[in-house]
Amino acid sequence: MGHDIGGLHHVGHVVRDMGQALERYRRMGFALPGPAYPVLGEPPEPFGVANTHAYLAGSFVELVALAEAGRLPGDARPIPLHVPEDRLPALKEAVRGTVANLDACLRRFEGVHILMFDSPDIDAAAERLAAGGAGHGGVHAAQRPVETVDGLVMEPVRYLEFDGSGPGRVPEGRVGLAENAAGSPHGAADHPNGAVELTGCVLCVADDELAEAERRYELYVGHAARRDGAVRTFVLGEGRAEVTLVAASGLGGLLPGEQTARSGGEGAAALPAFAAYVVAVRDVAATERFLRDGGMPVGRTAAGEVFVPARAALGTAVVFRQAG
What we know:
Number of strands: 18
CATH architecture of the domain at 195-322: Roll
Radius of gyration: 19 Å
Helix content: 10-25%
Largest sheet: 8 strands, mixed
CATH topology of the domain at 195-322: 2,3-Dihydroxybiphenyl 1,2-Dioxygenase, domain 1
């Protein structure tokens, strides 16, 4: 097993209404700061996208929405951009691409469209992927806003994204690797639901696409999956996390009650789709009580784990697993 994939870095939940998403996630017990969004010009206008993060141990869940004037919640925080005039056209073009990608996601469905693996050595991973024939756009450096005890700071991050149907996209959305800078300033937040770590993600694919999806993800992570009927599980980071692929016909066996939402009908997500992600919690019984007390519907996975169905979690189910 290779050592250039250590676990999951984050999942990105693309939402239509940031205020609604914050209300729903806070009801599920996630501690989330108000979203940050860039502003440009005078008077400053929202520019691009707004996002916020539920910080976990070495990972996070991101909420992302268009930064539209009049649709941002009251606790949203502007980040002024100071860009030299000669670099402004390139920045605007890049942001237009980001907005177009977000629009494309929402045209498919509201839910998780982003999965980033955590890599302790992204340069080695990039070499392995290229040698194996996995198309990607190379390693890039960027900055992202991070909430710390001293306020909002910009953290450097290096990342690569796999190429598929378009730049930075594969059929299920944006998938890639990310490597945090040494001494990353964010730590796990104190979540009322007891969440401590992002430990899994479930990708549902059409039955006749399972073999191809398995081939791709085997190349991404550098080793074979564990097979169980219509389910393929890739264990990451010596058991720290996992990515599960499931054929559409097997989704109901994995997440009871979810199959109708994915196999047709109003509001159905187009396949392939990230059907769920998994968060480890300190005390799953206490988490279930918190969810029920907050009026959230609760289901049970085939393994007996607690989950909030996709219909209540804005398009992607959230599974809560006992830590350890």
